[in-house]
Write a structure and sequence with these properties.
Blueprint: E1 5-12, E2 18-19, H1 23-27, H2 38-45, E3 49-50, H3 64-73, E4 87-92, H4 102-108, E5 117-121, H5 127-140, E6 147-153, H6 156-159, H7 165-174, H8 182-188, E7 194-201, E8 211-220, E9 229-230, E10 233-235, E11 241-243, H9 249-254, E12 261-262, H10 264-285, E13 295-298, H11 306-315, H12 329-332, H13 339-348, E14 358-365, E15 370-378
Parallel strand pairs: 4-5, 4-6, 13-14
Antiparallel strand pairs: 1-7, 1-8, 2-3, 6-7, 8-15, 9-12, 10-11, 14-15
Helix pairs in contact: 3-4, 10-11
Length: 379
């Protein structure tokens, strides 16, 4: 089995950073009213800036595939180097279309490449890590020699107010207080756009640092817990899901079926405990003590979860001092499948890394409670 190294990282963030006070200028006001939940959500999540592939008229400036292809281009020393790639793996929560796949659309925007293997990872935040694992295993077995994996999101367009106007007008017909339900409005103030990319090779950089991928572990708790975050469906009272295919076109509009929704109560009671208890078990099985860790990169949708993760790890006897934690959530926002790529990219290019550093990646996903953990060694 070959060693596998992340030899380069890159990102692409669209347009200029957008502050909290500017958000409704881009996303619009639903029913011409300022959101009642915006300030509450922003106070809890701690995000101060984010990026949207959107202008103030609500017009998209980039597609998801375009964001991703630009992150891939930023990996390369020249366009000619794209010909050396023999695998492209891409993860995202919401591609630009249901068919064809996200990865082939990205490949289509990179015409300098050859005819290569391309694969898309479905899911939410973990999809970017699944793309990384597919590429990692392909190089580990020696089947591929130079792979690029990506994580990206372009969610701002579906968070725009015009996607909810029909639903709110229907509510207004029935009651005076026509506010969007919290499970939909909540996520409008949580999510951001952007893309990140890694280059994977079986040899480390001859000059400069690389990060060896030591292992990647993934786990799902869908056999125990019901759906928490969803889109293109609705949730029944018994916790089951009703697909968009079982609604007529009028119901799809009236109920904003293609908006992203979150069962906030289910999220708060499970997302930290389930995953980070499992994390401490994995680390124990691998005989990795917290003192071995140099940098801990937890993907968080909100700083609200930071203390809860720390408390859970302490309860499990796996204390990681805060000075070892690294996140850029405050400045980059929650970019879902792209967040862990943006964190690794920023740390890799920060000048803080030194030979032998151990980096732990921790990515939870609230869709139906999935988690991916990984360890990298700087070499």
């Amino acid at each position: 089995m070959s060693e596998v190294y992340i030899t380069r990282t890159s990102n692409f963030l669209p347009n200029d950073a957008i502050s909290n006070d500017e958000m409704e200028s881009y996303l619009g006001q639903i029913g011409e009213r300022a959101s009642k939940s915006r300030r509450i959500v922003l106070r809890n999540n701690g995000i101060e800036n984010r990026y949207y592939a959107l202008d103030k008229n609500g017009k998209a400036t980039h597609s998801n595939a375009e964001l991703t292809s630009l992150a891939v281009r930023n990996l390369m020393n020249s366009a000619e180097e794209l010909k050396e790639i023999d695998l492209l793996t891409c993860g995202t929560s919401v591609p630009d279309q249901m068919m064809p796949s996200h990865a082939v659309m990205v490949h289509g925007l990179l015409p300098e490449t050859n005819n290569i293997e391309v694969t898309s990872s479905a899911g939410i935040c973990c999809s970017g890590m699944h793309a990384l694992k597919y590429a990692y295993l392909s190089l580990k077995t020696g089947e591929k020699k130079k792979a690029v994996c990506t994580g990206s999101e372009r969610l701002s367009r579906i968070l725009h107010a015009d996607h909810f106007e029909i639903e709110v007008s229907k509510i207004r017909e029935l009651e005076e207080n026509a506010n969007l339900s919290f499970d939909k409005d909540f996520l409008r103030w949580m999510l951001s756009d952007g893309a990140g990319a890694f280059m994977l090779q079986p040899e480390k950089n001859p000059n400069g640092l690389s990060m060896r991928i030591d292992w990647i572990e993934a786990v799902s708790f869908a056999n125990e817990l019901e759906t928490c975050m969803y889109m293109g469906c609705d949730k029944n009272e018994d916790g089951t899901i009703k697909s968009f295919m079982n609604f007529n076109s009028e119901e799809i509009s009236d109920k904003s079926i293609f908006s992203i929704k979150q069962d906030v109560k289910l999220l708060g009671s499970n997302i930290v405990g389930m995953g980070f208890r499992k994390f401490s078990q994995i680390m124990t099985q691998k005989n990795i003590v917290s003192e071995d860790i140099t940098h801990f990169l937890p993907h968080m949708s909100s700083y609200y979860f930071e203390s809860r993760i720390a408390e859970t790890l302490d309860q499990e006897g796996y204390h990681i001092p805060k000075e070892k934690w690294f996140t850029n959530l405050k400045d980059k926002g929650n970019v879902g499948a792209g967040s862990i790529y943006l964190m690794v990219d920023e740390l890799f290019n920060s000048g803080k890394l030194k030979l032998g550093d151990k980096i732990i990646l921790a990515v939870p996903e609230s869709g139906r409670f999935s988690y991916v953990f990984s360890m990298l060694t700087v070499c």
